[in-house]
């Protein structure tokens, strides 16, 4: 193949940093453009900063509160103060320490749910959309079936098997993920149905690319935007579902705790000791709100519809 | 070893052994209104390093013919006949085996370079990817080769260009990149499906140049699908004129264009504007519209639009038969009578 080497083309190398394309506009890669558009999205950036602070605090946990989660302080039923930022509960636990610990577990469960549901949903959608035919019909009817099931009721039944078992958070995550993959499967299927007809897919096939290569190297990267956005929003949704389960007593079991458990425990005292109910709830809302704003910002940044100045 | 060629006519290329032999290819599409006969018994031979032009208007079956050769038609298509690559039958092979031919033996360049490149990868990465489909090489080595290929097709500053995305390329540049990608695996046959149609007229000549340069670099044959007779006249050795899914005339370019033996070819040539025409001659259009492939006319498919039409034309389907010398073939009952007509060179 050495004989392929052409005569050198007499075009001087442009200095780096002066990369002008034929329209005189600065050449910009796709990822850089997405980052730039995201950074300029004020609400999303602010949410991202708040979210990072909340998550860092949650994962640092006891190292920043100077109390251990099982430490019984002499102060019981204290409202928020400089000593106990979120007050204490009726046996003297520092609420801030508990909230951070609960948030850590909630976030971890949500991340696992998002990872499982996204990969499973994307796989189902990709197979259905790419192969169509019988496989599509079967997969989509199963998806429809899962969508028609009243998920909370089934979640409760499934979760009840792990009720009260300590260290059941993995199982809870699995159960939630089992009912969270369907919307993404439909989105990805739709993307694949339209993408597979595009000419670059035919071009790839004409080059001898296999099905798996076309799916992984051509179709999936082109569907990444909705998948990422969906996964982000799923984290927030999973936190809320886990909260609902824990609130109803079917979720995370002690000695673990989660935001849902804290809210549930505080709900009995919402009139007499409101900080026990409202502060974990606020922390939870703040996390979910920030995730949703970040997701929206991502969607706006990735959306190719107004990103394409010229095509 | 190459099997029997459908026509013993002289080859237009350097080597006598054909790389691609298509025999009696038929393609039907099942539609709710009944089968559409897109290609009806097309045969042709592509010699090594030769350039074969396939011309015809939209819907004449030229693209479908080549898609059938590549095995890229949707499942609704029924393909019959024979396609042999270097003597091996490849029609009807399972997809897995066909993949070894695609890209490495038979490569394709598509009409629209705008949509034929994946928008989310850099151009260099896509060419490297094409190399890695068939060769077990490292990403970096494939990338180096991609830059070489971009350089070969005349993209200035190839190393920098390879790191750019398709939307940063102009139309002509993208088609060059597509050509680079198509020759990445040293194919024996390059199928170019209207490679210049989507491009600016000023770019067309450049792209044809690049195509020829690419062909010489990898010593492949080219099957050039186009509706532009000028392109065929300038580039091709042999030409096949298609109408309503049939080959109506085949032969060496010079023979077919100078002494057309089919009224359709004649009509096509007469409808071309001529720079050397004296005074203001009006162009002669072919009257009527292409026939429906769902309900093709009886007899010769061209007879409703033919100015030489006679009674027999609407009854008997004319066979593609040898007329004149040098392997020129025509599917007209009265091909010999057209011999008297001389057409000036285009």
Characterize the structure shown:
The complex is a heterodimer of chains A (311) and B (346). With 311 residues, chain A is mainly α. Chain A has 14 helices and no strands. The longest helix of chain A is centred in the middle third of the chain and has 37 residues, at 95-131. Chain B has helices at residues 62-70, 95-101, 113-116, 123-134, 139-152, 158-161, 171-182, 201-218, 229-235, 253-258, 263-270, and strands at 18-31, 34-47, 51-55, 77-85, 88-89, 106-109, 189-193, 221-226, 238-243, 246-252, 321-322, 329-330. Chain B has an eight-stranded mixed beta sheet with strand order 6-7-8-3-9-10-12-11, sandwiched between helices. A four-stranded antiparallel beta sheet of chain B has the order 2-1-4-5. The relative contact order of chain B is 0.14. The model of chain B is unreliable at 1-15 (pLDDT under 50). The chains are: A mainly alpha (311), B alpha/beta (346). Chain A binds chain B through residues 1, 3-6, 8-9, 11, 13-14, 19, 21-22, 27, 29-30, 198-200, 202-210, 213, 217-218, 221-222, 224, 304, 308, 310-311, and chain B through 70, 72, 96, 99-104, 107-108, 110, 112, 114-122, 129-130, 133-134, 145, 148-149, 151-152, 154, 156-160, 164-165, 167-168, 170, 173, 178, 181-182, 184-186, 217-218.
